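For reproducibility, we list the full input for the 6U4 complex.
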Amino acid sequence: MKPVKVYTLVFVFRENQVLLGMKQRGFGQDHYMGFGGKLELNETLYQCAVRELNEECGLIANSLTKLGVINFDYQGEEHIMEVHIYVTSDFDGVPVRSEEMDPKWFSVDNIPYDQMLRDSPYWFPKVLKNEKLNGFFEFDENKKIINHSFNDISGV
Ligand code: 6U4
Ligand code: NA
Ligand code: NA
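The corresponding predicted structure, in tokenized form, follows.
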């Protein structure tokens, strides 16, 4: 088994909209994604989620709700990405562009799946429905999905 690297991923909601960011660099560049990044030493997952949201779009989360975890295993990468997913509609500030993200509000009825990572259509609808999730995706060397699964954690 590959070692795991831990990440957070935050989705911000207001009315019937969700905030996504066009990634400017690194993993996921040129795709719309949630806000997040690598867990640092001496911080909790929750602190990481708050920090990354603030660094990447300027918003201050007053509270976050955890929806679950997805593991992403990309062929050729030395780590499995363990991504902890949070949502919030309790925040201060207005989204601003950063070096890493260009934020934009989307109607929940008009999600730009064609500009998101390929796994998004499988799990982001669950986030939009505020459903708990616990999933796994495996990708080939061309970043095509070759396996995916969700654990049934309803009632947990
Ligand atoms: P730097 O550039 O070092 O500041 P950092 O912000 O720490 O980076 P980054 O942006 O590389 O980390 O983290 C990757 C982000 O992508 C995390 O928020 C998790 C998220 N992510 C990882 N795999 C994903 C996938 N398959 N689909 C998806 N988001 C994914 O939608
Ligand atoms: Na990031
Ligand atoms: Na970051």
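The chain has a mean pLDDT of 97. The CA atoms of residues 56 and 98 lie 6 Å apart. Both points were considered when choosing residues for closer inspection.
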